[in-house]
Amino acid sequence: MLQTVESETRGKPAWAIIWLHGLGADGNDFAPIVPELVRPEWPAIRFVFPHAKVRPVTINGGVPMRAWYDIVSQAIDQRADEAGVRESIAEIDALIGRERDRGVPASRVILIGFSQGGAIALANGLRREAGVAGIAALSTYLPLAPQMASEITDAGKRTPVFMAHGAQDPVVPQTLGQRSREVMQGLGVGVEWHSYPMPHSVCAEEVRDLGDWLTARFQAG
């Protein structure tokens, strides 16, 4: 089981948000956003911020760092190490299973991820037989896109997706996010898309829009 940073908005959480960090960061990276994001009317939530494993990253000269998978090429269609992606999918499955054991079913789990973390959130959530309540993919793209048509589940197709991207992103170009959105929509996934005048980061307007989307998920659940 991956190590995690956790916080609860109130006792006896009815929902869980598993939030995956980007390349080279760790589970502490997005923990400070919780007070800015959470709204008083929301149900009790457990936030889970896992630490990715440390592994060598090819495009960074093989330097070991926390990463959900190796990035083996600058070429857009060859970025993700498939074995690493699938290993991380399994690790997130284990975290979702732990939430079930703690009283929060998958139907009340939301996956959020930034950059590499967002890629794994999409890769996991769309393949699950027991779907999650939603996936928020921030400044990211869909890895293993050619395999998705044969691997997406019926539950995955029904899972609401929030995508947000910076128009000036030099790390993960917005066009890659847009292309991923089109692939998912072509498979029948409902995607809510947002673009912001920012680089590879998160902005206040995005946090507000994410909060609105989360409110809708809680109301639907």
Question: What can you tell me about this protein's structure?
Answer:
There is one protein chain. This protein is α/β, with parallel strands linked by helices and 221 residues long. The chain has a single domain, classed as Alpha/Beta hydrolase fold, catalytic domain (Rossmann fold, 3-Layer(aba) Sandwich), CATH 3.40.50.1820. The protein contains seven helices and nine strands; from the N terminus they run ββαβββαβαβααβαβα. The mean pLDDT is 96.
Write a concise keyword list for the protein shown above.
alpha/beta; 221 residues; two-stranded antiparallel ribbon; seven-stranded mixed β-sheet; Rossmann fold
Quickly name the level 1 CATH class: Alpha Beta
- Architecture (CATH level 2) name: 3-Layer(aba) Sandwich
Choose one word for the global shape: globular
Counting structural domains, the number is: 1
Provide the helix percentage.
Answer: 25-40%
* SSE string: EEHEEEHEHEHHEHEH
Q: In CATH, what is the homologous superfamily?
A: Alpha/Beta hydrolase fold, catalytic domain
Structural class: alpha/beta
By oligomeric state, this entry counts as single chain
